[in-house]
């Protein structure tokens, strides 16, 4: 059994070994992820691939708590990150109240908050009240509607400067690591170099401190759209369809169940 990562071992891995983060939303998949992933993220992306919604914005705290409990049950030896959904950390008191619910009702090791300099006061309040925080800067899926789509960040000098300010502010506020999403690779690399905590990329190039992918994207299960940064490690959708078709054919042909499946 591999040793469970801690805040301290995650921080110490910077510059030593790239961190592997992957999402999971249930016990079954979390258990399968456990042997290879350093951290399991219960992302609010579950609202899209699990709940079938068009974006993450309608995910609720209750949903996140339900799925985080399931992931913690399945992967007892994993460091689990619970995404705080849209609208649950609009001010510091609300953020603390909701993060305490996550900590009290699940075994999550930390919460994840989207935002940079603008969320630093909230992150500081959480970390100084015993809530470990993973930041999330760059492309913010929760800003999908307000920004009119998923916008890659770091294309202009202004954006580059703001991202560096965001990363430093989140580090200064006490976050122990951060996700950086949808950022030009050279900018993400500069950011990873200018903070002392691990910067875990998704669509941010290779020159950061680790990578995160949404499991349903990398297993080829989510077919609605595939961002450029996703590598499909298997064609899960085809495999599942073929397996279910074989089952259906065998039921219809009365080839299943056989003697070995019968009492
Ligand atoms: O919700 C999620 O899965 C995420 C990843 C895209 C990092 O936040």
Radius of gyration using CA atoms only = 20 Å
Give the percentage of residues in beta strands.
5-15%
Roughly how many Å apart are the termini? 36 Å
Look at the helices and sheets and give the structural class.
alpha/beta
Q: How would you describe the shape?
A: globular
Question: Roughly how much helix do the residues carry, as a percent range?
Answer: 25-40%
Structural domain count: 2
* Major beta sheet, strand line-up: 1-2-3-4-5-6-7-8
**CATH superfamily label of the largest domain:** Phosphoenolpyruvate-binding domains
Q: What's the level 1 CATH class of the largest domain?
A: Alpha Beta
Work out the number of β strands: 8
Uncertain ranges: none
Key terms for this structure?
263 residues, alpha/beta, TIM Barrel, 2 domains, 8-stranded parallel barrel, 8 strands, 38% helix, binds 3-methyl-2-oxobutanoic acid
């Amino acid at each position: 059994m591999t040793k469970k990562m801690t805040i301290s071992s995650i921080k110490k891995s910077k510059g030593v070994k790239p961190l592997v983060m992957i999402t999971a939303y249930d016990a079954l998949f979390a258990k399968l992820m456990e042997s290879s992933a350093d951290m399991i993220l219960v992302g609010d992306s579950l609202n899209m691939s699990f709940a079938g919604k068009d974006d993450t914005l309608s995910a609720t705290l209750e949903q996140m708590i339900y799925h985080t409990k399931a992931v913690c049950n399945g992967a007892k030896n994993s460091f689990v990150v619970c995404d705080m959904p849209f609208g649950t950390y609009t001010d510091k008191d609300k953020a603390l109240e909701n993060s305490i619910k996550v900590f009290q009702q699940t075994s999550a090791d930390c919460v994840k908050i989207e935002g940079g300099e603008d969320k630093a006061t909230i992150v500081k309040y959480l970390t100084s009240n015993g809530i470990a925080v993973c930041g999330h800067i760059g492309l913010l899926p929760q800003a999908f509607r307000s920004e009119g789509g998923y916008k890659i960040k770091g294309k202009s000098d202004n954006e580059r400067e703001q991202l560096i300010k965001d990363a430093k502010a989140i580090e200064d506020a006490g976050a122990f690591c951060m996700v950086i999403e949808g950022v030009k690779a050279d900018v993400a690399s500069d950011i990873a170099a200018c903070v002392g905590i691990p910067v875990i990329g998704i669509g941010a190039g290779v020159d950061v401190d680790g990578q995160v992918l949404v499991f349903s994207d990398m297993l080829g299960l989510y077919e609605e759209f595939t961002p450029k940064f996703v590598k499909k490690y298997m064609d899960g959708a085809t495999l599942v369809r073929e397996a279910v078709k074989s089952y259906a054919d065998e039921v219809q042909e009365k080839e299943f169940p056989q003697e070995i499946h019968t009492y």
